[in-house]
Amino acid sequence: MSGHSKWAQIHRQKGAADTKRGALFTKLGNAITIAAKAGGGDVESNFRLRLVIDQARAANMPKDNIERAIKRGTGELAGEKIEAVTYEGFGPGGTAFIIECLTSNRNRSSATIKHVLTKYGGSLGGPNSVSWLFEQKGIIRVKKLDENLELELIDVGARDIVREPDNVAIYTAPNDLKKVKDFLEKQGVASEYAEVEFVAKEKKAVAENQKEKIQKFSEELDDSEDVNNYYTNAEI
């Protein structure tokens, strides 16, 4: 478990049943609305919006859904007020979780997160109760990367390049994410995913008898309509 749940969820649910796909589209739509509300509906001037739309396209979200979500954010269409809320807490086995929600009902989200944490032996924490265990990093995932580009990427702002079984992860400082993503696109390298995420400073080893519990806990977070993303220091 590496903490980038949205990326995993997009890939897992691209071919999922309509109900699962619909839930993912709702989450992505809310993220688009929040981004458009904060920075306007033009992707050329709103990098945050550009990132979320890229994620929506990767999930095969229909173009009409994307456009409606943008218009809700800019006020061209009416809709529920969506707000971003972040929770911190302890999951199974004392693992740390940061849970980001996009919700139309803050009380509902708080009750849901508290219930799921308690159900699996965890607890809801206060501000900064676990966030000090993480640092924010930009992350870009690409299918393939020519080794000849690695030095140039470092010059542009890449801090680390990790070759994983299914993709290559490129880590940056949050403020360098746009610069590195733009450089890759100019080189003809398409991003599968790009986002600023919380990355654990150190992973926490998990006992065998806790691994299944953490997996089920994470699945419940995925299934919650309010949870947009979550991050953990659990090493599974």
TrEMBL record:
Domain TACO1/YebC-like second and third: 83-234
Lineage: Bacteria, Candidatus Buchananiibacteriota
HAMAP family (UniProt xref): Transcrip_reg_TACO1
Any one GO cellular component localisation term in the record: cytosol
Protein name listed in UniProt: Probable transcriptional regulatory protein A3J62_02960
NCBIfam families: PRK00110.1, PRK12378.1, YebC/PmpR family DNA-binding transcriptional regulator
Family stated for the protein in its record: Belongs to the TACO1 family.
Keyword DNA-binding: yes
Residues in TACO1/YebC-like N-terminal domain copies: 5-76
Compartments, as annotated in UniProt: Cytoplasm
InterPro entries from the UniProt entry: Integrase-like_N, TACO1_YebC-like_2nd/3rd_dom, TACO1_YebC_N, Transcrip_reg_TACO1-like, Transcrip_reg_TACO1-like_dom3, YebC-like
This protein's UniProt keywords: Coiled coil, Cytoplasm, DNA-binding, Transcription, Transcription regulation
Record-level GO BP terms: regulation of DNA-templated transcription
Molecular function via GO: DNA binding
Coiled-coil ranges per UniProt: 200-227
PANTHER family: TRANSCRIPTIONAL REGULATORY PROTEIN YEBC-RELATED (PTHR12532:SF6), TRANSLATIONAL ACTIVATOR OF CYTOCHROME C OXIDASE 1 (PTHR12532)
Keyword Transcription: yes
Location (main, coarse): cytoplasm
